[in-house]
UniProtKB/TrEMBL annotation:
<dbReference type="InterPro" id="IPR003838">
    <property type="entry name" value="ABC3_permease_C"/>
</dbReference>
<feature type="transmembrane region" description="Helical">
    <location>
        <begin position="780"/>
        <end position="802"/>
    </location>
</feature>
<dbReference type="InterPro" id="IPR050250">
    <property type="entry name" value="Macrolide_Exporter_MacB"/>
</dbReference>
<protein>
    <submittedName>
        <fullName>ABC transporter permease</fullName>
    </submittedName>
</protein>
<feature type="domain" description="ABC3 transporter permease C-terminal">
    <location>
        <begin position="246"/>
        <end position="364"/>
    </location>
</feature>
<keyword id="KW-1003">Cell membrane</keyword>
<feature type="transmembrane region" description="Helical">
    <location>
        <begin position="342"/>
        <end position="361"/>
    </location>
</feature>
<feature type="transmembrane region" description="Helical">
    <location>
        <begin position="469"/>
        <end position="487"/>
    </location>
</feature>
<feature type="transmembrane region" description="Helical">
    <location>
        <begin position="735"/>
        <end position="760"/>
    </location>
</feature>
<feature type="transmembrane region" description="Helical">
    <location>
        <begin position="416"/>
        <end position="435"/>
    </location>
</feature>
<feature type="transmembrane region" description="Helical">
    <location>
        <begin position="382"/>
        <end position="404"/>
    </location>
</feature>
<feature type="domain" description="ABC3 transporter permease C-terminal">
    <location>
        <begin position="694"/>
        <end position="810"/>
    </location>
</feature>
<comment type="similarity">
    <text>Belongs to the ABC-4 integral membrane protein family.</text>
</comment>
<keyword id="KW-0812">Transmembrane</keyword>
<dbReference type="Pfam" id="PF02687">
    <property type="entry name" value="FtsX"/>
</dbReference>
<feature type="transmembrane region" description="Helical">
    <location>
        <begin position="690"/>
        <end position="714"/>
    </location>
</feature>
<keyword id="KW-1133">Transmembrane helix</keyword>
Amino acid sequence: MLKLALQGMRTRWATFIGSFIALALGVGLIATTGLALAATFSAVDRGPERLVKAPVVVKTSDLVRADTPIGERTQTITDPAPVPAAVTAKLAALGRAVEDRTFPVSGPGLAGNTVGHPWSVAALTPYTLTAGRAPSAPGEAVATGDALRPGTRVQATTARGSEQVTVVGTVASAGFENALFFTDAEAARISPDVDAVAVHAPADRVEAAVGAGFDVLTGDERRRADPDPDRDEEALVSVNALLGTAAGVTGFVSVFVVASTFSFAVAQRRREFGLLRTAGATPAQVRRMVLTEAFVIGALASAAGCWLGAAGAPRLAAWMADAGIAPAWFRIGEQTWPLHTAFWTGLFVALSGAVVSSWRAGRVGPTEALRESAVDSRAMPVSRWLIGGAVLATGLGSLSLALLDSPGDVLKRKTYITQPMLLIVGFALFAPVLVKPLIRLLTWLPARLPGAVPMLAGENASAGVRRTAAVAAPVIITVALAASLMGTTATISEAKAGEAREQITADYVATAGGEGRALPDEFVRRAGAVPGVTVSATRSTGVTVLEEGVALVKSEARAIDPAAHASVSRLPVVAGRLADLDDDSIVVNEEWLTTKVGDSVSVWLGDGRKADLRIAAVLSAGTGNNGVYLTERNAAGAPVDRVDLALPRDGADSAAAALGAAAKATGVQLLTRDRWVEAHYPRSSENTRLGLWTILGIALVHTGIALANTLMTAASDRVRDLASLRLTGATKGQVLRLVGVEALVVVAVGAVLGAVIAGVNLLGVWSALGLLDVWSDVVVPWGTVAAVIGASALLAAVASVLPASFALRVRPVELAGMRE
């Protein structure tokens, strides 16, 4: 049987080469994304950076701890308290102590994430002067890197206001921050709080001196005193989510397309199987031959795919780092399990795609097989009806249950990416019975136009149901994914923006120009002094709650003045009153476990204090941006990072001018409400767009391979049909036009079914938003969908016309006599 299988493969190499390429590329993509995904499971071990020369570092503990039935649980807090002066004095008595302060600095000519430090801590990195001198007076600073040279004057804005600073020296960049170093006295004036203390003393003596509530860091633990010590892990979270999505979609598309390709390749050989049965081959022998062929092709293609994946994964990692999607240090590790997974997945898909068709081919008798090879008499077996119905019912049922039980889950990435996959499989399984009515609908009007090409194209596509369904399948998946993924993300982004426009009633919003950066106190004072202007200052903080007794969950929170905030916003309160918010209460949203007004909840505040607060009001969940609200007293240590401003009815122009002058003088970004929403709620981030286009590119590549393989395989079996057309008087050009139009009709069928799937998915998202009281228009990515359909149509036309043109080089009489 192996010898017969190898001889058949050699004879029909054109059929098998397409299946080999499709499977090898599919396995290669699975291996590539799998290796990249495996590299996100652990961050690089950097060790301490800023205070690497400090023997011991002391800082206030930034962890809350809770004992649970499954062990101790910890969670970081957002606003740890500064090191008290009394503790700093004790540490200074033990040995040389250096006070560390970190505060944001912004202004023209400065990088968006610039921070300030006292000069005395520069030696602990260690930074060394590359030009100029150390700062020695107020208004002087040393800059990292070479963007600012000695003698340069910059307008630096800090929490204390905006003033001109002269760069008197530079140090080589350490790679993890953009910094300005001021004199120790100037840094203490700008930021009086001490963030950490570097101590040159034995760790045991330091621990005895500071007592409980402080972290005494030595060795690699000193990294916890670095700026954003968890940035590597946090960066990998988004990379992991992107690659996880890409790996899931890649695996699904690969399995779907490759299984369809193998199944069609086997189905096209029914006449060959019939001849074998006539010659005395048993059904079991036919099945073993097909499975042997699939095993050989699957093993070779999977091995080739693993080689492609091993070569492609480092290039993918390098591209992601260059594009800013992943950290600059992101590299592929030494893991090999993704290669094993990809290999066995490819082999399993090859065997699965062949076994179904081979089972059917082995069941029919010789005469029935020969007769069935001419026209597809029965489009689908009973098993396919049952499986397709079950898959569609599961997809639609899960969407309905999610809408009824938890509509917010429909808006999550994991849901709106996996949901279309069930619908795609379901519609693809029903494709053989859906294509005929769709073809008749799509060709009804063209068939009535002069010329026989539209009519013949529709009839040919209807006669070859399996061929049409196999060609339409990759188009279905590509169009459905393009419209669903792009449309859903754009619709959710638009809904978030609409929700923000609805909630913000202020005329202007002021920020420091960076996420979480503190606004200068001077701007808040000057804005409050403008007659008639309502000022609502917001502090971003966080609260931590122990959910179900086993998990510490941190939620974003905002500290406000309830009366002032009510004048500049319209929060979606569903229970209670915002006006009842006081120092002993909290406002939560519907996603909290406890949402009854008047109930008490135990939380850890942003500075680590534990407090029992009464629920004053409950907000709707919305799109997920409605967080927790506290009073300013419960946000100690959190700086003001946003100010909403409402102008008076009389004198609005003069008030706006005064606010603009205050913003310019203090380096604050002042935007109107609409401009602020537009700037903070774009359709999607650059990383999201790149990730989605990567996924769509994978799907489109698979579509191209599947179309080319299927149409070329089908063309080899249609040689005699083309000869018959030529013998009846059709010219070569007419035959090629017919073949091209038929391919376009099939692509149109796939596009319609893909659009239906996307429509169901987008309708589910729109319904979920409505159930969350967030009404938004559905955003359809017409340009993306048109580009995908156009690319599919071009690939299909080329893949069908090209082999037909080669076949038509032979005289029609010779074509008619050729063996298939």
